[in-house]
Structures are given as structure tokens and as C-alpha cells.
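Anyone able to model this chain together with adenosine-5'-diphosphate?
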Amino acid sequence: MAQIGRKILVLSGKGGVGKSTVAANLAVALARSGRKVGLLDVDLHGPSLPTLLGLVGHRPETDAAGDLAPVTAAGNLAVMSVGLLLGSASDPVIWRGPMKYNVIRQLLTDVAWGPLDDLVIDAPPGTGDEPLSVAQLVGPNAWAVLVTTPQRVAVADVRRSVSFCRTLDLPVAGIVENMSGLVCPHCGGTTDLFSTGGGERLAEEVGVPFLGRIPLDGRIAASGDAGRPFMLDACGPSAEAFARVADALTRSMEGRGAPRTQDTRPEEPTPMKIAIPVAAGRLSMHFGHCEQFALVDVDRANRSVTAVSYVTPPPHEPGVLPRWLAEQGAALIIAGGMGQRAQGLFAASGIDVVAGAPAETPEALATAYLEGTLASGENVCDH
Ligand code: ADP
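re: yes, here you go
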């Protein structure tokens, strides 16, 4: 990240307003102006950049250091998307909070971009935990671009996004009003389908630059579906609109001078629950038939155990424990032995597994895990 000039976080108050479309086309517009650009999709629940850029099925490689190598989309535009790391577009993404945080952190720290002028980041929509993690982890030299639609109902969402950015000390480079006016496919004229000017009025009200309007244009939607960003073959009024927005964005970032300067990257998320199968107060090697599970609450930032409780598992049956432990809020299980199939079932329930741990007390194991000293011996069970 230290080799990246400007980080541009594309945010929206809600999904479906064209955030990914705007992010992709702004990245292409910046790349076409000669800049070296990266485009990162961290929208965990709707990673659409592989589709928009025709990269479905591409698998990123890892380099010698284990970092992910971005995929080249066109000339000086490199892309990384959580969608490229998932099996298929139809796989449901069911991840618990800590796992989502880890995926976001990996995408923001473990991609070998090399030197870039701009990194455009397609962030998850809204103002919840996921965009919050992205906005914190992106670190210094960052700005936000807010995408909205012109209707009045969208204005409240943008207002929330503006205060979200202010709370995080993330300067807003501007607001883009997308789907603003409908371009007629027959005569090329523009009709206002919704009320107009919501984005501009709000920008004025909250003291943020207005970067421009992008019309609702069938060719923009069709190019997204065809996997070829609209701005690659840009011509006509909609392409000019995107180019104007890209220029306004550059001017805004240059004119406003100060990007976020401080490093807002937090420590690890603090609370986490670890499940440990126990018999007679120590780790039981056979998690499927253990007497009890210890649920150990830990504070990852301070590397401390905050509480331990004991619960009795339901009768053993394949698949029951992962579901039940997920319901108990466990994000990790420390086990003596665990077969591959069981590990897969835990992963599917969003629970990480550390197998091969010794028969120690739950507190000792959790502390060793937090300190990175948990000796993981042989996985004693493989059925
Ligand atoms: P978001 O990332 O906010 O969920 P997308 O970028 O995936 O939204 O866009 C949602 C749909 O709207 C897509 O089918 C996209 O092609 C279409 N779309 C977005 N902006 C425009 C536009 N200006 N004109 C026509 N279609 C658009």
C-alpha cells in the first residue's frame, strides 16, 4: 500500500445505485489518461467487477512471497476482486464477522500491486461493519467518492455516508449522481425519469464537491453485462459525462490538497470466541465425543482471555457441531484431531480450525493462540 499514490474509496449508501459501474468506469477513465491504476473489489456480498470487466473464471496467481498478483484487465489497469477468489458467481458467501474482516484485510494488504498512481476501491455498500473495516484499513492518502441516484429517497443515505466519512476522517472528494436522466436509445435525447438534482443539492448542503451526473444509458448496462467497461470504447454524451466526472475528481483531490493523513488502521478486531472440546478440564482429543465445549472469550488486541464458559454439546451426529458452535458465536475451534471432512464443515459454517493442539486447559490454549505460540502437533485424528 505504501507504493500507491492515491486511494479512492467508492462508497454508496445502499446497493444497486451503480457504485461498481462507476468505480470500474472511473478506473478505466483514469487509466486512459495515462495513469497506472489498480481496481480493487471488496464488496463481499456482490463482487461484480469480474462480470463487469469480463474476468469471470480468471484465477489470480500468488507470487513467491505468497501475495496475490492482480489480473491485468486492459493496458495499465490491474484488477483484484473477492469474486476472483470465490469458486463460482453463484456460491453463497456466508462468512462470520471476523472472517469477513480477515478477507477485507487480506485484500487490502496482501495484493502485490507494485507502484500505482491510483487505487480505486469498490467498497461494500452502506455504513455498516464491512465498509467501516475497509475505510479503516485503507490507511492514509485516501479519499471517498459517494455514488447516489437522483431521487429524494437516496439523499438520506448519502447524508449518512457523509457523516460516516467524517467520523473516520476520510475526506469526501465528491458526490456522483448516477442514473441521472434517461438517454433515449432512439433519438439520443435525455429525459428526467426521477426527480433531479438531489445529489447536487445535498453536496451543497453538506459542503462537499459535486462531481457530476451520469445518465441512465442502456449502453452502460449492456457493456457491463458484456464484460467490457463502457469507458473502454468511450464515445457519446454518457462517455463524456464519465470523463467529466473523472476530471472533476482529479481536480477535487488536487484542489482539496489534504487526503486523510493519519493511519487509521486498527489493531485486530478485539472480541472473539474460541471453542475448545474438553474432557476433565483439558482439551479432549476427540471433539465429536467430548463431554463439554469450553467457550473462551478473548480480546485479540490485548491478547487476553476475558471469560470462559462451558456448554454441553448436542448428541453427536455429522454436521451438527459446526452448526451448533456457529450458533454459540464461535469463530475458531482449537482441536486435538479433526478429519478433513469435519474441517470442511466447520469452514462452511464460518469457523476456522486449528488442529493438532496439545491436551492443555482452555485458558492456556487460547492464550497460546493469541500469542502465536500454540504448538500445533500432529493431527491425531483423521476420520
Ligand atoms: P451497485 O454496485 O451499486 O450495486 P452496479 O454497478 O452493480 O450497482 O449497477 C447495478 C445495475 O445497474 C447494473 O446492471 C448496471 O449495469 C446498471 N447501471 C449502473 N449504472 C448505470 C447507468 N448509468 N446506466 C445504465 N445502467 C446502469
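The pocket of adenosine-5'-diphosphate is lined by residues 12, 15-21, 46, 48, 178-179, 214, 216-217, 220-221, 224 (CB under 6 Å).
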